[in-house]
Design goal:
Largest sheet: 8 strands, parallel
Distance between the termini: 67 Å
CATH class of the largest domain: Alpha Beta
CATH topology of the largest domain: TIM Barrel
Bound molecules: glutamine, zinc ion
Structural class: alpha/beta
Shape: globular
Number of strands: 22
Strand order of the largest sheet: 1-12-11-10-9-8-6-2
């Protein structure tokens, strides 16, 4: 049985490309050296796949920054503001990806967006009316030839025309209809070039097909490919899909003469049913995506084999494949020296997944000697490996419906809290973190190396907290924060302090461009063994009469930014994490913290791609997990939450039903459309739509902030409105953060004077222990 890799990660096992590119950005490395480093990565990976016996090895899956951006460049879609810079092609692509400042003029980057339901972000290409679409680039052809010169025949991959059209942003009057023809022609030229180069197979990625499709979408897809596939005699064409199933078009697929069809059997909930209930066209190859490209657990061979067997019984000629690109996986377990073999044997990163492809295909063929792999694999799945913690299971099973309901109801709490806190109209606050300085990072390093004792490090953190409490007092903010100086990362910090998580040394996954993240692994049942944040919050509160917010990360975000378990459901995992965070919330409360923020920065991240699955497959457990976190607190304790985006116009009722008292979110860059939706949906949670953009070093004027607030007030009740930046300030410098906040407080005060009266702040410090 043949094997196929959809795409491989590309930053290098040691993140070589990241470091080389960053050096290049700083003019510390030449273009030639950067290209050399990239070629080295490609050669190593091709050879690795070849050694593992992969039959369909991808090329053109490499990118210096992003493959959607590369596709735009391939077809000459360069907005004029970048073209005018007259840069080299490489620098032009980086300008599009990252923006560019300096004497030659300032350009902002193209927008970046989440790649489907992953934590990868792609560059959104723009189409201007005067764009001249044509095959303009050489990259795919060069890389194909480069591999050939190493003696490796590859399958070039490209975002397919349908998905590319759907991902484009049209900035002028033109739309899909106007450019469809010229784009299809460019794709045909692409196919022709590969015919000349002798490629046997071409892969077109069409992930947009797994979303809900309209009639119009379906018509577009068919018309595009009827035209693309009309030429005979070129390379064979693989339609590659992933991240879901093709329920909207599956039955009609045989109408198009694809030579291969790639289906995702891991995330495609209905893929199996579609294949077995309808016929699979006999003359096509099925690329069966069985090896999970998004999670790091070993494949359960027995299960995969039984599926492969059933496909064979149906007479379907099958190629074994990853479920999606391996981009979403770390490179290899080989670099993990600290993790014990007992754990590691359960994992497969990208390189180990290549071995799984090989072993499974040998097993499917009944090759001699392959049985040993099956035996070993079977052993991994027998017995729970002692992962279940009886106490936690018992506690989860004992959760009653009323545990998800905070009492009294929202409006009663709002009344009580207004009296309790006596906050002024338009209360001002921040999202949690303050600048993470080089000094702080240096201290962290010295702590890790043992150069600093825990006491010395802690006393340094206390000084920072005290300093920033003082700054916030002087600024006149109403609800303060301790600044999160003790945290490196909002998920890792908590995962490290909870039981049940594992950490890696080098399991980096590309998030965008040169940025990589290292998600923790949820290994076993999660529980809280000791306080996570209490001492910092209590210390900060002891320094101020004003309320200081306790600051926690919510269960859904912790789950979404980790590698989840596959032996229990996401819902069950979320419940366990929620109980752990709930204990922390209650302990904060017991220690005199009266405002507690539970961040759900990533709540939207795993929202299913199809609307019809939003509630049943996700929100129906995600929202209750959040409610479980805070349902135990007193009516007077104020619960805040925060989200790093404002695209929740379509799930507003779900957000409201999280039943927080206050929510802050990003709004400064959006057109405030969200405010209309809040109004239409009678959103009752108090809201702090970010009044300025913390992602930019720019210091906003108070007049500008006031204008934003006035706009907000035209849609929201004054009593519901909070005033805050749109996210944490950890990436800003103090010289940016402080004046910005000063202007923010000024704007709120002016507005307050016009619209209401200030109320004196009650004294909380007396009740604090230190
Ligand atoms: N409280 C966190 C902070 O301020 C929230 C971070 C986030 O939303 N990503 O840094
Ligand atoms: Zn945020």
């Amino acid at each position: 049985m043949k094997t196929s890799v959809i795409a491989f990660p590309r930053v290098g096992a040691e993140r070589e490309l990241k470091f080389a590119a960053e050096k290049y950005f700083n003019a510390e490395l030449s273009e030639e050296a950067l290209r050399e480093s990239a070629a080295g990565i490609r050669a190593r990976q091709w050879r690795k796949m070849k050694r593992e016996g992969i039959d369909f090895i991808p090329s053109n899956d490499f990118s210096f920054y992003d493959r959607v951006l590369d596709t735009a460049l391939l077809f000459n879609l360069i907005p004029s503001r970048y073209r005018e810079l007259n840069l080299s092609p490489l620098d032009c692509s980086f300008a599009m990806a990252r923006g560019r400042g300096g004497a030659a003029g300032n350009v902002k980057p193209l927008a970046m967006k989440k790649w489907f339901n992953t934590n990868y972000h792609y560059i959104v290409p723009e189409l201007e009316d005067d764009a001249e679409i044509r095959l303009a680039g050489e990259k795919p052809f060069l890389e194909f030839s480069e591999a050939l010169s190493l003696g490796i025949e590859t399958k070039p991959v490209l975002i397919g025309a349908f998905s590319f059209l759907k991902l484009l942003r049209f900035t002028g009057k033109k739309g899909i209809a106007e450019i469809r023809g010229s784009l299809v022609k460019a794709y045909r030229d692409y196919i022709r070039r590969f015919r000349e180069l002798g490629a046997k197979w071409l892969q077109f990625d069409e992930p947009c097909l797994v979303r809900d499709l309209t009639e119009e979408d379906i018509a577009l897809f068919f018309s595009v490919y009827e035209e693309l596939l009309s030429e005979k005699g070129g390379p064979r064409i693989l339609l590659q899909t992933y991240f879901g199933d093709l329920r909207d078009i599956y039955e009609r697929l045989p109408e198009l003469p694809f030579d291969g069809i790639g289906l995702d059997f891991v995330e495609g909930e209905r893929t199996e049913a579609l294949v077995f209930e309808h016929a699979f066209p006999g003359d096509r190859l099925l690329f069966a995506g069985l090896i999970n490209g998004k999670n790091i657990w070993r494949n359960q061979y027995e299960k995969s084999l039984s599926l492969l067997l059933r496909l064979r019984e149906r007479g379907i000629e099958t190629v074994l494949s990853g479920s999606c690109s391996f981009l979403h996986l770390p490179y290899t377990l080989r670099g993990e020296e600290r993790l014990s073999e007992d754990y590691k044997k359960h994992f497969a990163f990208a390189e180990e997944k290549l071995s799984e492809l090989r072993e499974l295909s040998q097993l499917a063929e009944g090759e001699e000697g392959s049985q040993e792999a099956l035996r070993q694999n079977r052993a991994l799945f027998s017995g729970g490996e002692g992962k279940a913690d009886r106490e936690i299971r018992r506690r989860c099973a004992g959760i009653r419906p009323e545990d998800y309901v905070r009492k009294p109801d929202f409006s009663e709490r709002e009344r009580l809290q207004k009296a309790e806190f006596g906050l002024p109209l338009f209360p001002t606050t921040t999202i949690g973190s303050f600048p993470q300085t080089e000094e702080l990072r240096e201290m962290r390093r010295r702590r890790r190396s043992g150069e600093l004792s825990p006491e010395e490090y802690e006393s340094f953190l206390r000084q920072r907290i005290a300093e920033w409490i003082q700054i916030q007092e002087e600024l006149g903010l109403d609800v303060l924060v301790h600044g999160e100086f003790e945290r490196n990362d909002m998920v890792e910090y908590f995962a490290e302090r909870l039981r049940g998580f594992l950490f890696t040394e080098k399991a980096w996954v590309q998030s965008y461009g040169t940025r990589c993240v290292k998600p923790p692994i949820i290994w076993g049942d999660v529980s809280r063994v000791s306080p996570l944040s209490v001492k910092w919050s209590v210390y900060a509160q002891s320094l101020s009469r004003k309320p200081v917010k306790g600051m926690l990360t919510g269960p859904v975000t912790i789950l979404n930014w980790s590698f989840p378990r596959e032996d229990i459901s996401l819902a069950e995992s979320a419940k366990q994490i929620a109980l752990a965070i709930r204990d922390e919330v209650l302990e904060l409360e017991k220690n005199g913290i009266r405002v507690i923020q539970v961040d759900e920065a990533a709540l939207r991240e795993k929202l299913p791609l199809r609307k019809s699955d939003w509630y049943s497959a996700y929100l129906d457990w995600a929202i209750p997990a959040f409610r479980l976190v805070h349902s135990g607190v007193r009516a007077e304790t104020q619960i805040h939450t925060h989200m790093c985006y404002s695209e929740f116009g379509d799930i507003i009722p779900a957000i409201d039903s999280m039943d927080a008292d206050v929510i802050s979110f990003e709004a400064s860059r959006s057109d405030l459309q969200i405010l209309d939706s809040l109004r239409e949906n009678h959103f009752r949670t108090e809201v702090g739509p970010g009044v300025y953009d913390i992602h930019s070093p720019r210091i906003p004027e108070s007049a500008e902030i006031r204008a934003a607030l006035e706009k907000m007030l035209s849609r929201l009740d004054a009593e519901k409105l909070w005033v805050n930046p749109d996210c944490g300030l950890k990436t800003r410098r103090a010289e940016e953060a402080i004046p910005s906040l000063r202007n923010m407080v000024k704007a709120a005060r002016e507005l307050r004077e016009e619209r209401g009266t200030a109320v004196p702040v009650p004294d909380f410090s007396a009740s604090q222990s230190t």
